[in-house]
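QA checklist item 7 of 12: single-chain prediction sanity check.
[x] sequence parsed
[x] length recorded as 491
[x] structure emitted
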Amino acid sequence: MEKAGKVAVSRAGSADERAERSALATFYRDRGWRPFFVGAQDLTPEGRRLAKAIAASDRDGLDPADYALPQSRAGTPEARAEAEFAVGETALRLVRHLASGRFAPSRVSDLVTPHPPKPKPAEVLAEFADGRDLDATIAGYAPPHEGYRRLKAELARLRGEPETPVVRLPDGPLLKPGQKDERVALLRERLGVASIASDADPETYDPALAEAVKAFQRERGLAATGKIGRSTVSALNAEAQGNADRIADVIVNMERWRWLPRDLGELYVIVNVPDFHLDVMKAGKSTHHARVITGRPENQTPIFSETMEYVVVNPYWNVPYSIVKKEMMSKLQAGRLGGSYEVEVGNRTVDPSTVDWATVSPGNVSIRQRPGDGNALGNIKFMFPNQHSVYIHDTSSRSLFSRDYRALSHGCVRVHEPFSFADAVLSEEPETLDGSRLKKMLGRGEKTVMLKRHVPVHIVYFTEFVDDAGQVQTRRDIYGHDARMRRILGL
């Protein structure tokens, strides 16, 4: 065993794999090099419980084939020792994948930067050895969140359904209730709605079908108008796929839950980018639900968790370099920047009309917009310092909140009714601080208010989730993250 341990520790591999082999070697050394998983003839009771956990891993969206145990476990002491280490490595890899995910989130995008919780191999092995059911111990490393458990139940439901083809709806002009169209019969079949009377025209869009369409639209985050336009047709056809595709979508979203902290916070903010909403959560319940505007596909809102530390009222907008380069320089050259901006060239404040902008590099230009009406950040911003320099803020373009599709920002999150959001997110400040008090600061110059109670903020990307009513909700993969994750996972 000791020789097999030295060979295993010397092998190359990822940092996680090397740490797991080192922990295994220490674990066996402390046991006097006695095996744990593999006996003289076959698996020990602990090894059999591991095999049981592997067989059940598909319930958590994992592939049991990825954790196949070595077939040859008997024979010489050397062969048994090698098998023992191989089984031990498999056990630790299973726990890591269950708890943290199967790949680094940054493989999806440089803007996907959560820090998944990572089990410590030595602590995992100590739990294995303390005499409790090993398969139950392994199961305990799955995400504890209600959202994960709901998706796990949905995965089981989908796997229990027979594979049936789904009707696709062809494109066409806007279809409204009361109209007659040959697509209506297909729509009935797609949503499982029969004509309301035996002599009814199956091609007439009747009230019963309209209600079914509205229910579908609500579940998909669309305006529940009952009108069948391009977005509704796209949503209907996006699900015109077999169970295998629907299962893959659920597994992808289960994987994302592994990236979140195990403790989200007693009071926290969660922003679901493709859902265009945020919630302030307290004791597991939403106390505030609000529409948000998130980044365009070309200016994506990053995915990460950080902590809100302060609020700024009457904020300046320090224009990011990317916007200076792509948008502001052309306005400066054309003399169209406007008087609400302050411009610096090489750390010197300038009058834009006096500069030959054709000779100035964007890297030497700094621009900020003064507080007040028309400021891009509106009246307030909520700050949680992070590597991406994004935050939650008000906006001067409030009419955009009425749109269904709200991937419209440069990357930050714009929140509807920000002072109502402030009431919820600041509800546990030890001294009275709420939206009303912050409103009284408007128009008095930029004011920073430090928070005594810091609040976790989780910006997430869930395109499949189960709501509190038990309804599966599906959202558009606006950034293509689902497609990339399916390729990485081989789904």
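[x] summary fact logged: The first helix runs from residue 2 to 10.
[ ] second reviewer sign-off
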